[in-house]
Amino acid sequence: PLPTSTSAPSDAHLPTDRSLLVTRNHTPLLPLTSTMRVIRNVSLVVIVTSCTFLVSVTSFTSQRTVTSASPSYTNSNNNLYSPPLFASGPPVISNWRYQSSSGTISGTVTNHPTIPDGDSITTSPVRDGNGINENTIVQTKSGSKYKLSNVAWGATIPAVETKKAMQKEAEAAEKARKVEAEKAKTAAAKAKTASKATPKATSPAAATTKQPSSAELRRLAKSTFSLTGNTVGSNGKYLLAGKPRQSSGRAAKIWTAYIADPIEPGVPLGFSEGDESKVQPLTIKLSPDVDRLYLENANYNKVQSGLFMGRFVKKMDYIENVPSSDRSLDGKVSALIIESGQYDLKALLSARKGRPLAGKALRDAAAAAGQCIQAVHSSNLVWTDLKTENFIVVRNGNLYQEVEDVKGSMGLPGVKGIDLESVIAKGGNPIDYSPEACPPEFAKAYMEGIGGDFVLDYSYDMWSLGMMLYELSTGKAYFDKKGPSQVTKLLCTDTFEADVSAVPDEKLRDLIGNCLNLDPRKRPDITGFLLHPYFLLSGIGPISF
Fold first, then answer.
1. How many Å apart are CA 446 and CA 484, to the nearest integer?
2. Range with the poorest average pLDDT among 57-71, 127-141, 329-343
3. pLDDT tens digits, residue range 4-26?
4. CB-based contacts of 214-222 (< 8 A; 24+ apart in sequence)
5. CA-closest candidate to residue 223, choices 259, 179, 175
6. Three-state SS across 464-483?
7. What's the start-to-end Cα distance of the chain, in Å?
8. Which of 166, 204, 411, 523 is most buried as measured by Cβ atoms within 10 A of its Cβ?
9. What percent of the chain has pLDDT over 90?
10. Count of other CB atoms within 10 angstroms of residue 44
């Protein structure tokens, strides 16, 4: 079902059946039992009962007197916004990101006394940046408190990064200690051998470092990869690691995982010799919504077996009602296992602190997005959820170099698309939507209450593609710092027209402007997009699709 508006009328919290509330909250003021025994006239019974009901309603109403401790009511977008009557605790920020440069936290807020649920918020600088973590309460320097829910995909968690740094230092010290101990042991062995009257030849194998035992290897693997000790799949095929990330707006959780070594249970494949570089991480989506995950698996199969395969992550496995060593998961969720990425494009822009992509890096990202749309549309599907968070960079450890690559001369290889959960056949109806990715024609249908009947066409994705390229080329989203309800309402206004003058590159500005045409019939199809002069005459060098 499509999400509903974040604004609610002022009496939305009150139950509609007041008689039920009277029954629960009112104690009769008159001894009606003895009175009813002597009353014979039916009309008098009705009158007495009606009076009792009025007294009860009066008594109930007096209990709802608004005091200074009652929730505040504020006007938002010409509607009266009322926080939940029984809300408690500090405001909650979900899908949050920590800006180390400013010390602020931005994300989506709920349970705020004045800001509607679902709107974006940026806090003032926090007091302790290193202690920021999921499911913790932080305090700003101005004294405000916020509870942090799930972190945004690709964003870093300061407390976790601090812990990792300390662990690495401790591991490096321990490794150095072991190396020195091994050297001393080897030197003592050589001295003992040399002191013998008839020395024996030393075997090359004896001089090598002793392999760790299975127990030592499991302990080392657990600390190195943050293994939880839980597995999913038959015979513990996949090892779960770290903490899961919440899939935005859905019940699914995203885990980092590793294939288990069949010979060394509990140890990632490739780590039998203690070499971390030989281990490849995977991403596992676990969801109790079996039908939605089944649909996403089918969508991956379609787009990766069609005429154009696109640039999507590789799907490794799909398991329905997956077995798990964790009782809360065993047989209760399904699993989709895909290729893992280092970071998404939204996280890259955040790390660049407002500097947009440029040059070859920008063109690589645009080409990858175009190829993904080509694969989806050639399979007679519409993506409906194309945005920077759904493109990751795989097999690339150059994040810090790419952050400093102002001109984009390094390029951006390895950009791939993820998350096909919302993909629907052309001509079908959307199952959910992202305000920053939806075109004006859908926003109007949604505001009219007929969004669920909207007929999807390829032009929907072309609008989303234009919005994503605008964000990559300018360093910020078109509707930056605006909440979902604000974005949807802006798209519906008669005066709205996309302004792309902030895009530096002339050819790319023209391409984005074409994609953001208010008339869906005038937007280019994906073939016209890929054949645009921006790709063919950019002066960066040849590119192949």
1. 12
2. 57-71
3. 333 333 343 333 333 333 333 34
4. 214/264, 214/267, 217/264, 217/267, 217/271, 217/272, 217/274, 218/264, 218/266, 218/267, 220/274, 221/266, 221/267, 221/268, 221/271, 222/266
5. 175
6. HHHHHHHHHHHCCCCCCCCC
7. 37
8. 523
9. 48
10. 12
- Which tens digit of pLDDT belongs to each residue from 197-252? 444 444 554 445 567 788 888 999 999 999 999 999 999 999 999 999 887 657 89
What are 442-463's pLDDT values in tens digits? Answer: 999 999 999 999 999 999 999 9
Cα atoms in the 13 Å half-sphere on the side-chain side of 370: 25
Query: How is residue 440 annotated by DSSP?
Result: H
Sheet holding 104-110, edge to edge: 120-122, 104-110, 92-99, 145-148, 136-139
CA distance 514 to 522: 8
Residue with token string 């939507």: 433
CA distance to 114, 120, 125, 436, 477, per residue, from 482 (Å): 16, 6, 20, 10, 10
467/474 Cα distance (integer angstroms):
11
Q: How far apart (Å, rounded) are the C-alpha atoms in residues 94 and 118?
A: 9
Residue 411, sorted as left (phi over 0), alpha (psi -120 to 50) or beta, turns out to be left
Q: How far apart are CA 246 and CA 134, in angstroms?
A: 11
DSSP string over 474-539: HSS-TTTT--HHHHHHHHHSTT-----TT-S-HHHHHHHHHHT-SSGGGS--HHHHHTSHHHHSSS
pLDDT at 58 over 50: no
Query: Which strands make up the sheet holding 391-393, listed edge to edge?
Result: 343-344, 391-393, 415-417
DSSP-assigned letter for residue 199: P
DSSP 390: G
